[in-house]
Amino acid sequence: MMRPMNAADYARLVLLAAIWGGAFPFMRVAAPALGAVLTAELRVLIGGLALLLWRRLCGEGIDARRHWRFYLLIGVVGIALPFTLYAYAATLAPASLLSILNATAPMFGLAWSSAFGDERITLRRAAGLALGLAGVVIIASPGGLEAGLPLLLASAAALAACCAYGVVGVLMKRFSSGATPRAMAAGNQLAAAMVLLPLALVLLPSAPPSALVAGNMLALGLLASGVAFLLYFRLMADVGATRALAVTYLIPLFGVLWGWLFLGEALPASALAGGVLILAGTILVTSK
Asked: Is the pLDDT of residue 1 over 60?
């Protein structure tokens, strides 16, 4: 039985949410200059190598020969695809908006699990899905944001990324190779980096990145895809996956905060209202 959360656990939870919420402003700065594919490639390459180095320093590896098929499957579906979609969305829409849409991932997870017979959609969870859908409709509808094709494309890309996140849980249950979570964090990202590399080399930008872009890219890889995974798996080990999942509720708060503080973004009331509905729906979907 997992122990109750203490002050250190709450501090790690808030720090994790702050880092993952910061991923969206990092992408918003880096992706327009580097392109979606190269942004995703550098993110997983930096993060994967950092985690691999950490495991080597701890005297551990990732046992790639045994688990490479699993790493490749999850790396493509759960990392390469959604990271590229989010990087593309970041070229079109505010970071704060994308952080709100990210909260729909557990809803897609429930939908996929239900479709494959792993979980049942109860009345409460159905209400959560309905609230989340209503929130997405409000955000994507014409309002305070400059509506049009770019916003719709960004929203569609972000939701497609969350759909990919959602199916990963089903794939992991059916094709688990026995790799440890920490090994998967490194192995999946390195597999994603290998898949994205050829396309990233073809789509290199014509000009070298500025120091600002390079700094945001480095932070995206080291923090959002490196340090954050270490914090997340430490939380899961200490307090359980359900409590660690509470980070989902906090990420949009930090995404909006960092977007406003560092990028000068200001979401209209309609987008914030849609975000509240999405968060309420996420709580209903994930609560026992």
From this structure: no
